[in-house]
Every structure is written in C-alpha cells, then in structure tokens.
Write a structure and sequence with these properties.
Blueprint: H1 7-13, E1 20-21, H2 28-41, E2 51-57, H3 59-75, H4 78-92, E3 96-103, H5 104-113, H6 121-142, E4 146-150, H7 157-164, E5 170-181
Antiparallel strand pairs: 1-5, 2-3, 3-5, 4-5
C-alpha cells in the first residue's frame, strides 16, 4: 500500500495535527518501510549517515509518553505539570512516536577524517536530521496520518536511553507523534510571507 499523492502534493498538504486517535491508516509494516526508506535515502554531508530513529508503536508509544510525563512531574510544580500533562495526554492518545537521534560518534569520526570541515559537521548533522524528520513527516501525512513534532529533550534522554537500550552516544533531537486525525490541522488557514521576499532567481529562461 502506497500513497497516490505526488511529492509536490504531499509537501503542500503537510501540516501539524494535535488531535489524534490511537488508530493508524496504514499497517505497521508500512510505517516501518517509510522510516527505513528515509534512513536509507535521505542525504547527509559526505554521506556521513549520522541520523538514527527509534519507532515506537501501540503500547510502546503509550509507555513513552507515560515516561515523559513522569519525568516532568518530578521537575515541575503541580500547577505547571497539570498544564503540561494535558499536552502529554494528547500525545499519548496517538498511535506512534518516532524518536530522532544523531550518532555523535559518527559525527566525530567525520570531524577527524575531514579536519578542514571539522567545525561544520555538527551543523551538517543537525541539517540531515531535520531532513529525515521532514521526509518521514511528509510521507506519513501522505498516507492519511496526522503528525506533530515535539522537543522534550534533554530531560527525558536518560530514561528513554535506559528503556529502549539506546547507545549513550546517540543524541536525542525530536519526538514525532502520529495517529489518525480526529479533527483538522492546528492551523486551518496558514499565512504565508510573500515569496518574493524569500526567494531570488537569476539567469532563468
């Protein structure tokens, strides 16, 4: 099962969805295929391939957000936690979460290998991780899933490393939540700054 949307249509339609159910529009095998293809095919500087992903579905997804809520309950006042927990419960209500990491050992390997660009590799690493996030987000939405992206690291890093046996050299960057949408996107009518102010073209025929 694959989406019938074109790439341009998928890019245009991609939005943030917060209201999600614990259902999926596609089988788990397709979710795994989407992430696998992104890991294989998304570009990286010098083909460094530093990005990593942990896919959590069903009960593992629920457990992840229980862990995150537990961590923040220990850090926040009761009032602030009660507010944050409303968001955690919303994410928990979804179907799955993808944890995005960068392998710092791999980044250092390329820093040592290409000394001329040593100071550039950390930034390039962040860029390729963002590309992985975007590719997967767009692909999931093309399959009818709603997606949102969260950043509760670094407070949650150690607990998730322990729970999912993640190497300590993997640095957590983002948590992508997805599920079947139960309402429209968070922003119904997205406003755009004039493209003419953000794009220049020279030499076109």
């Amino acid at each position: 099962m694959t989406s019938t949307k074109s790439f341009a249509e998928a890019v245009h339609d991609r939005r943030t969805y917060y209201a999600l159910s614990n259902e999926s529009t596609i089988p788990d095998s397709r979710i795994r295929e989407i992430v696998r293809n992104a890991i294989l095919d998304t570009p990286s500087a010098f083909n460094s391939q530093t990005s990593r992903a942990v896919v959590l579905l069903g009960e593992e997804h629920v457990k992840t957000w229980d862990i995150i809520a537990e961590v923040y309950k220990q850090q926040l006042s009761e009032e602030k936690f009660n507010h944050a927990n409303q968001r955690f419960q919303g994410f928990r209500a979804g179907y799955g979460t993808i944890l995005f990491y960068e392998d710092t050992d791999s980044v250092r390997e390329f820093q040592n290998k290409f000394k001329t660009y040593e100071d550039k590799f950390p930034g390039w690493s962040e860029q390729t991780n963002g590309m992985h996030q975007y590719v997967i987000w767009t692909a999931l939405e093309a399959e009818g899933l709603g997606v949102n992206l969260q950043h509760y690291n670094p407070l949650i890093d150690v607990r998730l490393e322990t729970e999912y046996k993640v190497p300590s050299t993997w640095s957590l960057k983002a948590q992508m939540v997805f599920g079947k949408p139960t309402s429209g996107p968070a922003v119904q009518n997205k406003e755009f700054k004039p493209v003419e102010e953000r794009m220049k073209v020279y030499g076109a025929k």
